[in-house]
Each structure stands twice: as structure tokens, then as C-alpha cells.
UniProtKB/TrEMBL annotation:
Protein name: LytR C-terminal domain-containing protein
Alphabetized UniProt keyword annotations: Membrane, Transmembrane, Transmembrane helix
Biased composition (Low complexity): 93-108
Organism: Cellulomonas alba
Recorded superkingdom: Bacteria
Region (Disordered): 1-24, 63-109
Length: 201
């Protein structure tokens, strides 16, 4: 049908479209930023996501491994061995060996030293019995007698010089006497035992 045969009057839809009349669905023209921001977002996020994945993979033990002939031995994390060595041995510290121990020479007991046993307890045969104990212990020069001087508070072993101290102690241990004293006046030239009671009683 031609426009001449169209029976209806013209309305707004029959008006010729001008340059400012929108056609179809009306949309505002897009700005430059709205067209480019998706690309910018991809460019920024892609490296960040890749870095995060690499970091996570590395921390979970998926880092590089050395080629040890197919053994698959994992590398020791960098700095671990050095840190352990420094912790166990401070820098500049040298291991010092313990000073040599001095051995104290054993006390020398002279079984040939003269030992005199004086009976001050007035017990018959006491000095002789104590002399037998010393001879059984290895002493070779043991004499007996009676004490005529002032008696000590308890049976005592006297020795004349410092070198006789181990021998006097041996005499005291053999007879069961506790008191051992250095007194050249009462010991004479060697060792003297003054009995005020029976040490074995």
C-alpha cells in the first residue's frame, strides 16, 4: 500500500526522524573508562593471582629439588644448616679441654716403723694382745710396756713426724682407736700407743 492510499492522519510515529531523535532503545553513549576498566582489571589481577599461587606452592614444599642422581632428596632450606651451627657453637668460641686431673699419691704406710704399745689401763696382757693385732697386720717392729706418765683422756696413737702420719693412722685403724695426734714428746722417735682401756671391748 502506498502512502497516498494510507487512510489515517499522520501521528508522531509517521514524523520523519531528525538528527536528534533516538532510534530503537535509547542508551547513553558509553564513556572511555567504562570500555577499558575490564582490561585494566585483568592486567592488574592476573599477576597478583599468579604470585599468590607461586608463593602458596613454594610454602607447601613444592619448591625446586636438586638433581641427586634420581634419589629425590629434598634440599635443606637455605640458612637452616648455618643457623643450627651458629646456635650450637657461638662465633669465636673454641672448645677447651678439661684441665688434667692431678693424682694425689697414695699415703705411704711404713710397716717397718717402730711401734711402742704402752699399757695404761692396768689390764693384764692388754698391750701384748694389741701387739699381736699389729703384727698380724704386717708391722715388724712392735714392742710393749707399761705407761708411767700422765694418761690421755682416751687411748691415743702419737707420732713424731709428719711422714709417719699415714703409718700412725694405720695403727689406729688396726687397733680401733679414734685419737691420732702428732706429738714428738709423747711419741719418742717414732710411734707410741698409750692404752687407757681395751679398744676391742
Amino acid at each position: 500500500m502506498s502512502r497516498a492510499d494510507y487512510p489515517y492522519p499522520d501521528d508522531e510515529f509517521d514524523a520523519a526522524a531528525g538528527g536528534d531523535v533516538p532510534r530503537g532503545v535509547h542508551r547513553e553513549p558509553r564513556t572511555g573508562w567504562s570500555r577499558w576498566w575490564p582490561f585494566v582489571l585483568v592486567i592488574v589481577l592476573a599477576p597478583l593471582l599468579a604470585f599468590a599461587l607461586v608463593t602458596l606452592y613454594t610454602h607447601q614444599g613444592g619448591g625446586d629439588t636438586s638433581d641427586d642422581g634420581g634419589q629425590g632428596v629434598e634440599d635443606t632450606p637455605t640458612g637452616t644448616a648455618t643457623s643450627t651451627a651458629k646456635a650450637s657453637e657461638p662465633a669465636g668460641t673454641k672448645t677447651q679441654s678439661a684441665p688434667p686431673q692431678t693424682t694425689t699419691p697414695a699415703a705411704t704406710v711404713n710397716l717397718d716403723a717402730p711401734v711402742s704399745i704402752l699399757n695404761g689401763a692396768k689390764i693384764q696382757g692388754l698391750a701384748g694382745r694389741q701387739a699381736t693385732k699389729l703384727k698380724d697386720a704386717g708391722f715388724t717392729k712392735v714392742t710393749t710396756g707399761n705407761s708411767t706418765g700422765t694418761l690421755p683422756a682416751s687411748s691415743t696413737v702419737y707420732y713424731a713426724t709428719e711422714d709417719l702420719q699415714p703409718t700412725a693412722q694405720k695403727v689406729a685403724d688396726t687397733l680401733g682407736i679414734d685419737a691420732v695426734e702428732q706429738d714428738a714428746g709423747k711419741a719418742g722417735s717414732s710411734i707410741t700407743v698409750v692404752l687407757t682401756s681395751d679398744p676391742g671391748a
